[in-house]
């Protein structure tokens, strides 16, 4: 599986060492959460990093699908609660004109200080990890390699497909630490098999992290084998279906907002021509 950097029309975002990008194929970006020592918990700064990555993916013509996974034994254990608590201490310092928070907050690390005192304090509009409320145009597939808790689960619920290790564990334990699951999910604790029964997990892999990522790349390659225009408009149709209570209204929106944009374009012509000629279609990067 190739992970070398590739040339793109739009430069990739500038990222910290906690968000890794690699490219298994020329059309897939693999995003790896790289804070295994804290089970890949995400703080405010990284939320914005990830949101920038998904925005870049939607805008970069060569990329057709994204994958998100975690390094180590966790996919993502949710929010960086130490960073969240430090933010509370920073506000307390401002209110009481305190010179420092060291006495109150002995684990004041550089990463958490950047999270607590940086300009970007709020979560991006696209939600936890830039995913939990994302309505982007290209699919994101989750490769759940282990623990998937709190905001990690909320990201997964809004992914387009989910491939999970057999031993993966899902849950929303926020109430146990006095906070709430506000990124858009429902409360539940369960294993991968139950999540598949619920329709949240699509595929279970009886393997380690590398096996889960490998299977996810395989699934994503199948998506990339279709017309990129059709994939984008089909995803738009699913999103519109969630937004509309009336089937006729949803259909009209799909036609006006999606179909008319792709109708008659190169990929539609190529797909129909390839079908008639009984050959594999040669898609071009989407211009939608």
Can you walk me through this structure?
The protein has 288 residues and is an alpha/beta fold. The protein contains nine helices and ten strands. A six-stranded mixed β-sheet has the order 1-2-3-5-7-10, sandwiched between helices. Strands 4-6-8-9 form a four-stranded mixed β-sheet. The chain is globular and about 55 Å long. The two termini are 28 Å apart. About 17% of the residues have low confidence.
Brief write-up:
The protein is α/β, with parallel strands linked by helices. It contains 9 helices and 10 strands.
- The chain-level structural class is alpha/beta
Number of helices: 9
**How are the strands ordered across the major sheet?**
1-2-3-5-7-10
Q: Give the overall pLDDT as a whole number.
A: 83
What distance separates the N and C termini?
28 Å
SSE arrangement:
Elements: E1 19-25, E2 28-33, H1 44-59, E3 65-70, E4 74-76, H2 81-96, H3 110-117, E5 140-144, E6 147-149, H4 151-157, E7 161-165, E8 169-171, E9 189-191, H5 192-197, E10 203-205, H6 209-224, H7 228-243, H8 247-262, H9 266-277
Parallel strand pairs: 2-3, 3-5, 4-6, 5-7, 6-8, 7-10
Antiparallel strand pairs: 1-2, 8-9
């Amino acid at each position: 599986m190739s992970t070398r950097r590739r040339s793109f029309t739009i430069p990739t975002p500038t990222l910290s060492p906690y968000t890794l990008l690699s490219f298994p194929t020329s059309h897939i970006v693999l995003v790896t959460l790289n804070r295994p020592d804290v089970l890949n918990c995400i703080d405010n700064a990284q939320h914005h990093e990830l949101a920038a990555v998904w925005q870049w993916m939607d805008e970069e013509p060569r990329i057709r699908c994204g994958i998100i996974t975690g390094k180590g034994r966790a996919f993502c254990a949710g929010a960086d609660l130490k960073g969240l608590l430090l933010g509370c201490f920073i506000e307390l310092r401002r209110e009481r004109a305190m010179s420092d928070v060291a006495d109150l907050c002995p684990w004041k690390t550089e990463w958490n200080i950047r999270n607590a005192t940086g300009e970007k304090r709020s979560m991006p509009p696209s939600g936890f990890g830039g995913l939990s409320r994302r309505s982007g145009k290209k699919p994101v597939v989750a490769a759940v390699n282990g623990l998937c808790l709190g905001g990690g689960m909320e990201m997964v619920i809004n992914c387009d497909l989910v491939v999970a290790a057999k031993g993966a564990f899902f849950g929303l334990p926020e109430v146990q630490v006095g906070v709430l699951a506000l990124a858009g999910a429902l409360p539940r604790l369960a294993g991968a098999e139950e999540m598949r029964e619920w329709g949240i997990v699509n595929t279970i892999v009886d393997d380690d992290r590398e096996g889960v990522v490998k299977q996810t790349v395989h699934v994503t390659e199948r998506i990339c084998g279709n017309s990129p225009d059709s994939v984008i408009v089909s995803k738009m149709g699913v999103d519109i279906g969630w937004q509309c209570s009336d089937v006729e209204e949803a259909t009209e929106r799909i036609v006006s907002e999606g179909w008319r944009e792709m109708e008659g374009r190169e990929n539609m012509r190529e797909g129909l021509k390839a079908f008639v000629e009984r050959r594999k279609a040669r898609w071009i990067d989407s211009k939608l």
